[in-house]
Amino acid sequence: MQNTALRQKNQKIPPGEKHEHLERKLKTRHLSMIAIGGTIGTGLFLASGTTIHDAGPGGAIASYLIAGIMVYFIMTSLAEMAAFIPISGSFSTYTSRFVDPALGFAVGWNYWYNNAVILALELSSASLIMKYWLPNIPSIVWSATFLVIIFGLNVLSVKGYGESEFWFSIIKVATIIIFIVVGLVMIFEIMNGHTGGFGNLKLGEAPFKGGILSIFSVFMVVGFAFQGTEYVGVAAGESENPEKNIPKAIKQIFWRILLFYVLAIFIIGCLISYKDPNLLSSDLANIAVSPFTLVFQHAGLAFAASAMNAVILTSVLSAGNSALYVGSRVLWVLGTEGKAPSFLKRVNNGGVPVSALVVTTFVGMLCFLTSFFGDGTVYSWLLNAAGLSGYLSWLSISVAHLRFRKAYIAQGRDIHALPYIAKWFPIGPILAGILCFIAMLGTNYEAFTGGKIDWYGILVSYIGLPLFLLGYVGYKMLKKSKMVPLQEADFSRE
Question: Degrees (nearest 5) of the Cα angle 119, 31, 443?
Answer without folding.
Answer: 45
